[in-house]
Amino acid sequence: MASPPPCVVYSTLSLNTLTKRCRIDGRLYDVHLGKWMFYNPARQEKYFHVRSGKIDSTARSRPTDRQLSQMDEAEFSGRYPISVWKEALATPISRRLAEIWIASHRLHAAGLGPRPGSLIVARNYKRNFRSYGPTAGLQIENARLLSPRDPVTQEEMIAAGVRPDRYLSCVRQTINGYVSDLCSVVGVVPIDAEDEIEALAGQIDGLLTGNGAG
Predict the structure, then answer these.
(1) In the chain, pLDDT over 70 holds for what percent of residues?
(2) E-assigned strands of the chain?
(3) pTM for this entry
(4) Contact by Cβ (8 Å): 99, 189
């Protein structure tokens, strides 16, 4: 990553999962709902579901807080054991966004994914009228508007320095042949990128707390 990406800062982002709309600083948008993030095609922006600084999931298989505290870590909820769910849901927004931005940058450079743009920060995030703290995301091209290509393969991703998700959903569910969905319980990550991830996550932490430049 040659230089850190710029950032767009919003005050409030309110998501209604029933109407599939979000309101950003008073303006209403239709969104495409995902289990870990949701996409605003009008602004070409993708945002995290979050809880108190950590990423969250709206998947039906997501364990409840009670299950997370009471179930044995080897027990399964959906396709993943509780121990793996705990690790995923304990991931800071800043860490996961850094991983996704860097992975997206590598995929685009190799012709395998849409172009990522600015980071996005919303200081107040609400889902179905309940507040969950700040959220973040990124600007990213709409893969549906790109010229179709042959579906990306696992081998192409690894050659580009990106590890697919555990169950290879990212290559089974491409859009126009491009990798678009990088999120899962064990999601897509850049390979050998820890220094880049830590540096970008630090920048995002500053933006989330209001100490970084927008």
Answers:
(1) 97
(2) 7-16, 21-24, 27-30, 32-33, 37-40, 45-48, 50-51, 54-55, 76-77, 80-81, 116-127, 130-131, 135-140, 162-163, 189-190
(3) 0.95
(4) yes
* Summary mean pLDDT of the chain: 95
Q: Which tokens in the block code for residue 90?
A: 């304990």
Domain ranges of the chain: 7-208
DSSP-assigned beta bridge partners for residue 27: 24
Tokens of 47: 């945002």
**Rounded Cα distance, 45 and 120, in Å:** 8
Asked if 177 and 150 touch (Cβ cutoff 8 Å), the reply is yes
CA-to-CA distance for 41 and 38, rounded, in angstroms?
10
* 138 token code pair: 């990124």
Beta bridge partners of 67: none
* Both structure tokens of 84: 């793996």
Length of the chain: 214
- pLDDT at residue 106 is higher than 60: yes
Each residue's pLDDT tens digit, 196-206: 999 999 999 99
Residue type, 11: S
Query: Is a pLDDT exceeding 70 seen at residue 212?
Result: no
Instruction: Kindly calculate the radius of gyration of the chain based on its CA atoms and give it in whole angstroms.
Output: 17
State the Cα–Cα distance between residues 162 and 143, nearest whole angstrom: 18
